[in-house]
Structure formats: structure tokens, C-alpha cells
Amino acid sequence: MAHRVILLVDDDANFAQLTKAFLLQAEGVANEVVLARDGVEAVEHLFHPGGAATEEMPGLVLLDLNMPRRDGFWVLRKMRAAERTRFVPVVIMTSSIDPEDVRMAYTLGANGYLDKLADGMPWDELVRTVARYWLEMNTTPNTLPGETNGFTRSLGTTLAAPPKTNYGEEKED
Question: Domains plus CATH for the chain?
């Protein structure tokens, strides 16, 4: 099934393994969850041979912000700057509720922002709900039928004149 791969980027190994287990449990929200321990590993997976660069692009990236080597903001900048990853949904998962972090994440193109420490909903339910929305309910340019990178259709086809319809016209008898 296409676009059911999640890239989970988090330096906390226990948290990452637990989240991965939740995503692969019973309902099977994802077919595969690929783990990256920091921003460097995430970018290597997305852009270099042997990673998603030669395989299917993930349908969702769950991205921590505060990690060693390269942080989540760096990954988000790289993803939004590249055509092949521009439309991949990215949801930030972090313990930071600093307003500047939230603003920066959305400014850089994050699609969502989750507080890992929030007590509103159990984490397993929250992460499965978010993944189900992005993988099963939401449409992105990459999930359109026949699309692999969001840029398959030419602008001429995409922006062509709308088909003629009889909407709003009176019927002639």
C-alpha cells in the first residue's frame, strides 16, 4: 500500500521504540516505521542512496526538534527546500512548548506540532490518530493517483481551463 511508511526522527531510543510499536500495532496504521536518531540520519535517509532517495518517500515524518548533531529545524529546512520532499507531511513531536519553537516550526513548513508531555490524550491514541489522518485521510500532491513526487503533472494540465459545465444555466426545453 503506497505512502504508508513513516520516518520517525527522535534521539530518545526508548520513546522512539515505544512510538514505533504503537504505530505498527493491531490497526496497522503504517506498513513500516523507519527510525532515525538525529537530523543527520533523517536527511541521509531522505536524500542519499540506500534510503528513501531510492525507495518510496515516507508518507509522514514525525520529527523531534532537540537532537544531537542536527536538530529538527535543520531537517525541516532541507525538506521544504527540495522538490522531492516539499509535500511530505511533517509533524513535530517535541517536549518543547516554547512559543518561538512553535512559530519557527510552522514558519519552516511543519504541518503539525505535538507536545510529547501533554496529558490531554494518551500518547498511543494521539500518535495513531495523527498518523491515520496524514496517511489515510489527508490528500497531498504526493498522494494523488499517478503521482510519485507531486510534480508529475505539467502546469499546462494542472492549470488548464476548467471543463465547460451547465452549472447555473437554465435548461432549455
Answer: 5-144 (3.40.50.2300)
CB atoms within 10 A of CB 4: 18
Q: Which residues pair with 62 in a beta bridge?
A: 8, 91
The closest alpha carbon to 141, from 59, 51, 81, belongs to 59
Residue pair 63/91 in contact (Cβ under 8 Å)? The answer is: yes
Look up the pTM and report it: 0.80
Q: Left, alpha or beta for 40 (phi > 0: left; psi -120 to 50: alpha)?
A: alpha
Give per-residue pLDDT as tens, 148-162: 544 433 333 444 444
Distances from the Cα of 97 to the Cα of 13, 77, 118, angstroms: 21, 20, 10
Beginning with the edge strand found earlier in the chain, give each strand of the sheet holding 32-36 in spatial order.
Answer: 32-36, 5-9, 60-63, 90-94, 112-115
List the grid coordinates of 129: 490518530
